[in-house]
């Protein structure tokens, strides 16, 4: 079986950084590029954080691309105070990493997605873990994207549980509901990894203590970053029982769909109040053959076991400089 080619589309954030580490660590995947989104931070800082994390993990060869700086229906973007609280002012839990040795690539995120679609075809899975603005733009640039690539596995939305930014909306979808709705109405093969499953994928300080024992700079920095994130979760959403592994779960399912159980259901995003940014089944397409899978259940011990195994190995292997 050929390795899956992955593009991570990140608003690099703490859990986005974990998604990056997970794909690098997974022997069944090739990370072909990281595209950047605004969201948890401004897009330039998202790219800088990705470059820093890639250097920390000894993978400076993976290209990083800058994406759109704001939602498709707006002309600017400000980081929400909630995002600053959850991810820290610098987006990575206020840990201090050296200035990256390189710059992002000149090609835009959407152009890179289109180029990669032509190069890798069905082996390519795009994994957005922030707003869908870059992907919606790539679709506009290349309307054949749905026929070219293997699929899109995204972190966002909530079908069977409440939202986390409004009572009905999840944070990533809420940033650019129009872009997400375009993606939902394209023929892209989609898998939604929403709060339905990501709130069950939980990391605790018992897990970060294991990383601390590994003792490499990568292990220690990730432990510091995650302890920051866990403290915020315990203060704001104690019922989760630790921090939610939103973005790494989407990355993991992109590589191995067997972590989750899904239902086939085409979705829409509500664009009007009072339900703006809600993800829900599209009543206008209930007679069509669905192109969307929505994850509704997760094999928690299987996922956490594999997650800890791969990240532990990766952190061990970053010993030598
Ligand atoms: C999503 O919002 C962001 O804060 C996280 O990185 C994740 O992608 C969870 O709703
Ligand atoms: Ca994210």
Automatic annotation (TrEMBL):
Record-linked InterPro entries: Inosine/uridine_hydrolase_dom, IUNH, Ribo_hydro-like
A GO MF term: purine nucleosidase activity
Domain named Inosine/uridine-preferring nucleoside hydrolase: residues: 6-303
Classification via SUPFAM superfamilies: Nucleoside hydrolase
Keywords of this entry: Glycosidase, Hydrolase
One GO-annotated biological process of the protein: purine nucleoside catabolic process
Superkingdom in the source lineage: Bacteria
GO cellular component assignments: cytosol
Gene3D superfamilies: Ribonucleoside hydrolase-like (3.90.245.10)
PANTHER family: INOSINE-URIDINE PREFERRING NUCLEOSIDE HYDROLASE, URIDINE NUCLEOSIDASE
This protein's name: Nucleoside hydrolase
Organism: Candidatus Paralactobacillus gallistercoris
């Amino acid at each position: 079986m050929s390795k899956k080619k992955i593009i991570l589309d990140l608003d690099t954030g703490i859990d986005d950084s974990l998604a990056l580490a997970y794909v690098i660590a997974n022997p069944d995947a090739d990370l072909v590029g990281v595209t950047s989104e605004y969201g948890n931070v401004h897009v330039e800082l998202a790219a800088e954080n990705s470059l820093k994390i890639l250097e920390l993990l000894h993978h400076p060869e993976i290209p990083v691309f800058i994406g759109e700086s704001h939602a498709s229906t707006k002309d600017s973007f400000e980081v929400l105070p909630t995002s600053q609280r959850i991810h820290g002012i610098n987006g990575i839990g206020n840990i201090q990493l050296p200035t990256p040795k390189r710059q992002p690539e000149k090609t835009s995120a959407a152009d890179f997605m289109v180029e990669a679609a032509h190069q890798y075809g069905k082996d390519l899975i795009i994994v957005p873990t922030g707003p869908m603005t870059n992907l919606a733009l790539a679709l506009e640039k290349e309307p054949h994207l749905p026929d070219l690539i293997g699929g899109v596995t995204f972190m966002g939305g909530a079908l069977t549980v409440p939202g986390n930014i409004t009572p009905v909306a999840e944070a990533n979808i809420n940033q650019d509901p129009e872009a997400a709705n375009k993606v939902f109405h394209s023929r892209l093969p989609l898998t939604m990894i929403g709060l339905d499953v990501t709130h069950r994928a939980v990391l605790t300080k018992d897990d970060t203590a294991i990383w601390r024992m590994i003792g490499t700079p990568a292990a220690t920095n990730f432990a510091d970053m995650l302890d920051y994130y866990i403290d915020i979760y315990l203060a704001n959403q104690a019922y989760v029982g630790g921090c939610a592994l939103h973005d790494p779960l989407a990355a993991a399912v992109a590589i191995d769909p067997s972590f989750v159980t899904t239902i086939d259901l085409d979705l829409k995003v509500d664009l009007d109040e009072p339900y703006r940014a809600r993800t829900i089944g599209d009543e206008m397409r209930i007679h069509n053959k669905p192109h969307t899978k929505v994850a509704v259940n997760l094999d928690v011990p299987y996922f956490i076991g594999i997650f800890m195994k791969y990240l532990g190995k990766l952190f061990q292997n970053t010993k030598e400089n």
